[in-house]
Known about the structure:
Distance between the termini: 28 Å
Largest sheet: 2 strands, antiparallel
Order of helices and strands: HHHHHHHHHEHHHHEEEEEEHHEH
Shape: globular
Amino acid sequence: MAEIWKQIKVLPASYAPGKLLGQFYMDIIYIFQLQHLIYHMFLAETAVQNYAKPCKTILQSSLYITFERMVSLHVRNMPNHTGYTSVIITVFIQNRSINRYIMKKHKRKFPARLFTAMKRELREHRSSFIAYNIFRALVIVIMIFTIFNRNFESSFLCLLTLILLTVPSLMQVALKIELPTVLEITLLAFIFAAEILGELCNFYTIFPYWDTVLHTLNGFLMAAIGLSLVQLLNSSDRILFQLSPIFTSIVSFCFSMTIGVLWEFFEFSMDRFFELDMQKDTVVHKISSVLLHPAGENVPIVIKNIRDVTVSGTDLGLGGYLDIGLIDTMADLFVNFIGAIVFAILGYFYVKNREQNSVVGKLIPRKKDTDKDYLAAQDR
């Protein structure tokens, strides 16, 4: 209302105060009738067209222009009309609080909108949608089997996998990015291979290099995501600088290595607090430690050709000394490094050649088009 009075104060002196106050009450009633009309127009627009623009942007649309002309026609036909009525109506309609109030009346709640947007996102690409349903069906079958066998720990892992399979679609909706089909299918396969094949089907033990392959692939994929983040920032109008191809590849590499280190932190935490042995042990035949020095000096003592280890009088039968995860951690970081450096090199030439490399382009997310922003479409 303060905005209305500011506009009234600048009116010519010909508008007498007494005349203004005399018609103010009836004009305010008329304004609220117009506001009610706006509300129903928005409801009609939403019902006719699913992708109608939201209330907060309707002022710039052709619908508002038509409505403004209609309002002006009604105002001119009002009895005892004064010029300030148009000022009041214009300010009232353009008030953001009124727009928020109207939008709140018919806007769907966020969880429902997010769920609908994710369903549309899953169905956008046929190949990734088929892959998603295949992986999901396999996980559900395995989960039912584990429930019948009362293996509830494995059932929980299956449930976690079902949630993780929706992460690519959730990323596209929440971050408003478009994942290439190749990248999306690769991420789905990676989740299935790590959680179901690796953990439940015991591929980590059956195939000694299964974990190595997954960590290498993780380094490669995370470098692709890191490069895409830089590309999105470079194309943003809010960023005042752009990185050169060499610095873009360096950031891509560092992002991948950071994710790899954070994952090792996670594995260590799981081993420390829940005794899951995610950082696999290795049997070694030589150790070197300063703790073995009889005088306590900072000089390592080396023991070679270790064949037996006895704990509390019991031979472990491993044929050597048990390393508790250090070698596994360093091996994982090293193969992550290889995957990251390979993609960083490919990404450098990709950016330098102005995105001409089609192979790398199939792995780099891009900013989502307006027509494919399904979360925003719920407001239109």
